[in-house]
Amino acid sequence: MARARRFHTSTLGPWAAFTSFSPYLAVELSPEICIELSRLVNLRTPVWEDESRDALAWSVATLAHESVHVTGNLSEAMADCLGDADDPDGGGRAR
Ligand SMILES: [Zn+2]
């Protein structure tokens, strides 16, 4: 986990995530991101009407980013690019 922490740091404090490869493959999401993803699953109104839509969008983008790393691709640029491929604004995620 220490290696993964060094690999994946964030200036956003608790709004961080990383992928670990040892002892098993896992995506570690901060509690803040998990809460937003759980909230998204149960959201009953359109996302754009949610007062925390930025947090929802960040959390989904983070999960997409880490999903690229899970494939074994450790390139931050590629994770940003492929993870945000459907983002019409081109993404802009930091990590
Ligand atoms: Zn990354």
Strand content: 5-15%
Averaged pLDDT, please? 82
Note the main sheet: 2 strands, antiparallel
Order of helices and strands: HEEHHH
- Write down the domain tally: 1
> How far do the termini sit from each other?
17 Å
Instruction: Please state the CA-atom Rg, rounded to the nearest Å.
Output: 13 Å
Tell me, briefly, the overall form. globular
Discrete helix count: 4
Low-confidence residue ranges: 3-8, 90-95
What small molecules are bound in this structure?
Answer: zinc ion
Query: How would you write the strand order of the largest sheet?
Result: 1-2
Estimated structural class:
mainly alpha
How helical, in percent, are the residues? 40-55%
Number of strands: 2
Blueprint (SSEs and pairs):
Elements: H1 2-7, E1 17-20, E2 26-29, H2 31-41, H3 53-70, H4 76-83
Antiparallel strand pairs: 1-2
Helix pairs in contact: 2-3, 3-4
Bound molecules: zinc ion.
Can you give a write-up of this model?
This protein is mainly α and 95 residues long. It is 45% helix and 8% strand. The protein contains four helices and two strands. It has helices at 2-7, 31-41, 53-70, 76-83, and strands at 17-20, 26-29. It has a two-stranded antiparallel sheet. A hairpin with a 5-residue loop joins strand 1 and strand 2. The structure holds zinc ion (ZN). Zinc ion is lined by residues 8, 65, 69, 76, 79, 95.
